[in-house]
Specification:
2 domains, 72% helix, protein transport, soluble NSF attachment protein activity, Serine Threonine Protein Phosphatase 5, Tetratricopeptide repeat, 13 helices, elongated, syntaxin binding, TPR-like_helical_dom_sf, transport, mainly alpha
């Protein structure tokens, strides 16, 4: 057994101790019923550190796939512990490891998912430039290396307009509306399917309402959108942030 395998086994054992929370986090079957204990968070933290160490050990062993998996598991645990920066760090490292695998679509998709987790965490902490960078990379297929191999990847094929939308929302929260509009227009050109979405229509309506200083129209645009496509909590939070800045109102 390699050092990485040993550390991963220790992490799994730590999680399975008493309450079997591994099944809750990663979807594995647990032979024992779940019992909530006061030191569950401590065991999760210790397991996260063990998975991080395992990821590094696998990296030194030139096992990129196992390294990426271990770092991803560490990221999941840190996210459960509400340690966003630690989770983001592990997801970035996992993505870096998985992208080293030669032309393996599943690994590449997992790498993208890790980075998307980083983008979500970054936006939640109002680190909009980082979130924008990731969402735009994903919507552009990152680079040409895997463009052909990932052409049929559902995450990419159907997700690109969604990530363009999220990038635009972050632009609206981060900069002035003029620069945000330029960024949205650029993304609309880069991701043609984005222009045909209700998300793009909503963005245009929101920016138009701000230009016209029409706060009521701003709300009407959201209500109209919500009739067809429910506004999720993450989107609601960013739109509220944009509205608060644009109309100088306190939405708390």
């Amino acid at each position: 057994m390699s050092k990485g395998e040993k550390l991963s086994a220790e992490a799994e054992e730590k999680l399975n101790k008493r309450d079997g929370i591994l099944s809750t986090l990663f979807g594995y079957d647990s032979p024992r019923p779940i019992h909530r204990t006061s030191n569950k968070s401590q065991r999760m933290e210790e397991a996260a550190e063990l998975y991080s160490a395992a990821g590094n050990a696998f990296r030194l062993e030139n096992n990129a796939e196992a390294s990426g998996k271990a770092y991803t598991q560490a990221g999941v645990l840190f996210e459960k512990l509400n340690r966003g920066f630690d989770a983001a760090d592990r997801y970035v490292t996992a993505s870096s490891s998985l992208r080293k695998l030669p032309c393996q679509i599943n690994a590449y998709s997992t790498a993208k998912r890790c980075l998307l987790n980083v983008a979500t965490i970054s936006a939640n902490f109002e680190d909009y430039p980082k979130a924008i960078e990731i969402y735009e990379k994903v919507s552009h297929q990152f680079d040409s290396q895997y463009a052909r191999e990932t052409a049929n990847d559902a995450l990419l094929k159907y997700g690109a307009p969604e990530y363009a939308f999220k990038a635009c929302l972050c632009h609206l929260c981060f900069g002035d509306i003029t620069n945000a509009r330029i960024a949205c227009d650029r993304l609309a050109l880069d991701v043609p399917a984005f222009c045909d979405t209700r998300d793009y229509t909503l963005l245009c309506a929101l920016m138009e309402a701000v230009d016209q200083e029409d706060e009521e129209g701003f709300g009407d645009a959201i209500a109209e959108y919500d009739k067809i496509k429910r506004v999720d909590p993450w989107t609601t939070r960013l739109i509220s942030k944009f509205k608060s800045s644009a109309f100088q109102v306190d939405l708390r």
